[in-house]
Amino acid sequence: MTGPKFAFVASESDEARAAQARLCARYGEIAAEDADIIVALGGDGFMLETLHRYLHREAPIYGMNRGTVGFLMNAFGEDDLPARLARAEKVTLHPLSMTAHGAGNGPVAALAINEVSLLRQSRQAAKLRISIDGVVRLEELVCDGLLLSTPAGSTAYNLSAHGPIVPMGSALLPLTPISAFRPRRWRGALLPNTAQVTVEVLDPAKRPVSATADFTEVRGVSRVEIREDAAISLHLLFDPEHNLEERIVKEQFQP
């Protein structure tokens, strides 16, 4: 009885490409489009690229770290790979859907696996109005920016901006300001994953703002709408002893 077919994809680094060559020589080489499981060799950035590249496939992705941080990756090892894949636990993620308006050529739509961020483009702070499900919750936020992250992305840019880490399966999305100036005491909010977030840029001509969803950046936006797209499911595989939920919990106790 044959097991699932798996393919190897690698980042541009010499270390990742060398590992890909050795693994292909040992386990065989097939196209990612024909694989049941895709094995990604690189770091977290490459994992995000791989998830976007194969967004509309059902094949789960098993990452092995040949990069730096590797939060979304498993430890690298060349031995007993079929057994590791058979034991791996699946985690399902839903991306954020961003629609950015005001860029000059109509709305721009993009998906984010980590976060959607809005950042000031000039020396002047951004002025933003925040609405949740059509209700204005913050009339004016003066800041360097704002981001909405997924649970998986809450340990990335969101954490660096002093936002909360959100466990997987919590059905929450952290909304976090970046260097808020007014109101000074606002530290963000935890929103249900069904929330529709609308951010309006106040005075966009004088205080221009860009919006970024992972690898897609739109400059000079006037309004950005963000929501979780539950219709799209992304599947990651993790070794049982280093699953993503455990890593997110562990991250909250780092010194």
Strand content: 35-45%
The strand order across the widest sheet is 6-5-16-13-8-9
The overall average pLDDT, rounded, is 92
Helical segment count: 5
- State the fourth-level CATH superfamily of the largest domain: Probable inorganic polyphosphate/atp-NAD kinase, domain 2
Classified by CATH, the class of the largest domain is Mainly Beta
- CATH topology name of the largest domain, in short, is Tumour Suppressor Smad4
Intertermini distance:
48 Å
* Main beta sheet: 6 strands, antiparallel
C-alpha geometry: elongated
- Unreliable residue runs: none
Percent helix among the residues?
10-25%
Number of domains: 2
Tally of DSSP β-strands:
17
Main structural class = alpha+beta
Whole-angstrom Rg:
20 Å
CATH architecture of the largest domain: Sandwich
Order of helices and strands: EHEHEHEEEEEEEHEEEEEEEH
Explain the overall architecture.
- By secondary structure, the protein is of the alpha+beta class.
- It folds into two domains: 6-93 and 233-251, Probable inorganic polyphosphate/atp-NAD kinase, domain 1 (Rossmann fold), CATH 3.40.50; 96-228, Tumour Suppressor Smad4 (Sandwich), CATH 2.60.200.
- Helices cover 17% and strands 37% of the residues.
- It has a six-stranded antiparallel beta sheet with strand order 6-5-16-13-8-9, with no helix packed on it. It has a six-stranded antiparallel beta sheet with strand order 12-11-10-7-14-15, with no helix packed on it.
- Helix 1 (14-27) links the parallel strand 1 (6-10) and strand 2.
- The model has no long low-confidence stretch (mean pLDDT 92).
